[in-house]
Amino acid sequence: MEGKTHIVGGLAAGVGYSVLVGTGDTTPFLVGCMVGSLIPDIDHPQGKLGRVLPFLSKPISSIFGHRTVTHSLLFLVIVGVAFQFLNLSQALEIGIMIGLVSHIVLDSVTKDGVKLFYPFDFNFRIPPGISTGGFIEKGVLIGLCFLVAYYGYGMFL
Ligand SMILES: [Zn+2]
């Protein structure tokens, strides 16, 4: 999936979480959703985050490849442990985690899938397997925009 789809996907997941569970502080929560939705593609030097942080994305890409460790359950655990040493607000941490999970789920519905169980070399895919940047992804993006607009407008009222 492309960066813009991941950002909107992270927001949609965050809005869904907010509707079902509620959030504390809305702004850091939604910022966390957006940032978290981009973090896994730090392994892609041409991605939105990879272009901003090439000193991180290039070595990660050459060592691990794309959609491996940063798209895995192991990475969620690593980030969760890192949160124990960082002094972030709980709303921001939950938002980042939701963004990370949304990214992994969205990449899982592409033809390439993700190495969800990294370091095991099993490619996890959720059918139907759509093409990144293709026509169906554009439809997914539009649908996610409507979900964010419909359920999310109330978060700021
Ligand atoms: Zn990705």
Number of strands: 0
- Poorly predicted runs: none
- Helix segment tally: 7
Series of secondary-structure elements, N-terminal to C-terminal: HHHHHHH
**Overall pLDDT score:** 94
Radius of gyration, in Å, reads 15 Å
Any idea what the shape is?
globular
Main beta-sheet strand count, sense and barrel state: none
Helix content: 55-70%
Beta-sheet strand percentage? under 5%
* Bound ligands: zinc ion
When the domains are counted, the total is 1
Distance between the termini: 31 Å
- Pairing-aware structural class of the strands and helices? mainly alpha
How does this model look, in words?
- With 157 residues, the protein is an all-alpha fold.
- 62% of the residues lie in helices and 0% in strands.
- The termini are far apart.
- The longest helix is centred in the middle third of the chain and has 19 residues, at 90-108.
- The radius of gyration is 15 Å and the shape is globular.
- It has one domain (3-156).
- The protein has helices at 3-20, 26-38, 48-52, 54-64, 73-85, 90-108, 135-152.
- The mean pLDDT is 94.
- It contains 7 helices and no strands.
- The structure holds zinc ion.
- Zinc ion (ZN) is lined by residues 40-41, 67, 71, 103, 107.
